[in-house]
Amino acid sequence: MSEKNSHILLANADDHRIAKLAAIAIGLHLIEAVLPSPLPGVKPGIANIVTLYVLYKFGIGTAAWVSLLRVFAGSLLLGHMLSPTFVLSLSGAITSLLVLFFAIRLPRRWFGPVSLSILAAFAHIGGQLLVVWLWLIPHAGIAYLTPVFALAALVFGIINGLVTARLLSND
Amino acid sequence: MSNPISSRPYRDLIGAIRPGDWLTVLTTIAVVMVLFDSLWLGETASKVQIRAGNQIHSTLSINQQRVVEVPGPLGITTVVIDHGRARVASDPGARQYCVKQGWLDQAGQVAMCLPNQVSVELLGSRKIHDSLNY
Amino acid sequence: MSRRINFWSLCALWLMVFALSACGREPVYQSQSYVFGTLVDITIYGEEESRAAELASRIQQDFQRLHQKLHAWDESSELSRINRAIAAGESISIDTEMADIIEQAGVFSAASGGLFNPAIGGLIQQWGFQRDSFSAVDIDRKAIDRLVAANPRMEDIRINRKNDGRILLSSRNTAVRLDLGGYAKGYALDRAAAYLKSEQAKNALINIGGNVMALGRHGERPWHIGIQHPRKSGAIASLDLEDGWAIGTSGDYQRYFELDGVRYCHVLDPRSGYPARHLQSVTVLVPPGNLTGTRSDADSKPIFITEPENRKKMAQQLGLTHYMTIDQAGNISVSAAMQKRLQWKTDVKPNILQTLP
């Protein structure tokens, strides 16, 4: 009984942390939605830093919670719920979580947050482009945008990865 | 600016990159390059290319209103660009084929004023063919 | 992470892609000049720019030399010198290259049953096509009939290669006037191709006034050629021109004048002395082999001139398997082999010719 209680107590502490982290992620999500982006359609994806941080600290399950919570709450707050923007946001989050699920199993000695961040960014944009291509603009034109998005994913992936590494090293 | 205190976090950031990360970075750079190469190669904006003799006289956007005077051995060939289309308005050559051709509005179309050695070609978003058989 | 994409930002980016895309570079060198009274376009792929420029400039120089030598109405050209000697009934000493060209043109003429006839320079001059700039001429029926009756033919020309190395040309018919307008460009193509091969340049595209010959490929893909629509701006079809192939078109839209609403084109029927009027254009595609470029130039003329019912026979006689004709009503006919190679631009409905047994 007491053991179970202590377990619940521990979980509650985690819940608080997750809630806090999800709140930060949502905050970053909102800031990014308001800030003008350097190129239309290209955003740095700073909320991904939180997802990565949670992934390293609490594992893929918690990271998925934080990430999906951010997508849903962010969309609710911005009034995008169930709009194309929301679907794109969700599909990007799901594909990047899928890739992270496998990427976190890479040997830690060799592959750090930078690798994971880049892979997640590519998965994110890949998932979004796939949805755009299948659903919104089903013609070859989208192909010509791919290199721009890929370049953005690379640049912001590296930056976000470095920031995550810094945050983790501070703990 | 590069005192040890302010440069330390920077060094820490680079230090966070592990050997495999470099591999990831290099691989993704290669992927981005291949994407640019395969999807953008040969793509050009919608433009008008005017050639005079052996030289490219000018390459201009087709989305403008402009009159270009191109000198040739016989005199001036006048090219008119009009928001998405272009034509030879006047040419000193006797046959006037290039003037009779009228407006060009599709990529790959060419008007040649052979006597005055002036040619006007519309370049599309993609080069439709390498050369034209006529 | 909210790297959001929405429709309008895609559109904006699309425009930007267009603006940036001018940066894409290819190892392609292109040179353009005006020779043979037309546009000469040389594209070389995969060579260093300085070397490509050198190769192209050598070819352009050779074309310029040929142009001066074979010019039909420049008094100072070697061909004019020969024509003056023929008119005077004299024999004249010529060089090996000129002898080879005239003999080979004679072979092409014979193969076409005389429909390809470079000896009718007199007729071409009468029609006013031997001018840099020409306009409508008064049609002098009597003069034309006289020139046709004189029956100038390539067979009239005798080339005598002496033991001492001298080559003497004479003609038993003083009405012969050589005009290699339907031959020189093709010959120049073959020369350029041979030169590039000797220099180990593997990938190039040479276009002399619409006659195009391909060497190698454009990198990963074959060279792609558009075929001009005879009445509209732009291409009617396009095709991949594989290594060693050449394509040539004879059309009534290339050089012509209009008189009383009738179009008189520069391709003359030597039997009547009048411009051929059956077709708007003939396009021939010639496979790699001997004289590919020359064939792409010379072999379209007999098809253009001959009567519609004799066209298939003529093509067979010339060994042409790939050809396309567009008649005065705009109806397109293509050989089955040609159809396989063509990509039509618009909703063109070509009539596919059955090959003769």
Describe the overall structure.
By secondary structure, chain A is mainly alpha-helical. Chain A has 6 helices and no strands. Chain A has helices at 2-34, 47-58, 60-78, 84-103, 113-136, 146-170. In chain A, α1 (2-34) runs antiparallel to α2 (47-58), α2 (47-58) packs across α5 (113-136) and α5 runs antiparallel to α6 (146-170). Chain A is globular, with a radius of gyration of 17 Å. Chain B is built from 3 helices and 8 strands, in the order ααβββββαβββ. A 4-stranded antiparallel β-sheet of chain B has the order 2-1-7-6. Chain B has a 3-stranded antiparallel β-sheet with strand order 3-4-5. In chain B, β6 and β7 (118-123) form a beta hairpin. Mean pLDDT of chain B is 81; it is low at 1-6. With 357 residues, chain C is α+β, with helices and mostly antiparallel strands. At the A-C interface, α1, α2, α4, α5 and α6 of A face α1 of C.
Tell me about the biggest sheet of chain B? 4 strands, antiparallel
Could you name the CATH homologous superfamily of the largest domain in chain B?
A: N-utilization substance G protein NusG, insert domain
Number of strands of chain B: 8
Q: Kindly name the structural category of chain B.
A: alpha+beta
What descriptors fit this protein?
heterotrimer; A: 171 residues; Arp2/3 complex 21 kDa subunit ARPC3; 6 helices; 78% helix; disordered N terminus; B: 134 residues; mini-chromosome maintenance (MCM) complex, domain 2; 2 domains; 3 helices
Secondary-structure blueprint:
The complex is a heterotrimer of chains A (171), B (134) and C (357).
Chain A: H1 2-34, H2 47-58, H3 60-78, H4 84-103, H5 113-136, H6 146-170
Chain B: H1 4-15, H2 19-40, E1 47-52, E2 55-61, E3 65-71, E4 76-82, E5 86-90, H3 97-100, E6 110-113, E7 118-123, E8 131-133
Antiparallel strand pairs in B: 1-2, 1-7, 3-4, 4-5, 6-7
Chain C: H1 7-20, E1 28-35, E2 38-45, H2 49-70, H3 78-87, E3 92-94, H4 96-111, H5 121-126, H6 141-149, E4 157-161, E5 167-171, H7 184-198, E6 204-208, E7 211-215, E8 223-228, E9 235-241, E10 246-251, E11 256-259, E12 262-265, E13 279-286, H8 292-298, H9 300-305, H10 311-318, E14 322-327, E15 332-335, H11 336-341, E16 342-344, E17 351-353
Parallel strand pairs in C: 15-17
Antiparallel strand pairs in C: 1-2, 2-6, 3-5, 4-5, 6-7, 7-10, 8-9, 9-16, 10-13, 11-12, 13-14, 14-15
Helix pairs in contact in C: 2-7, 7-8
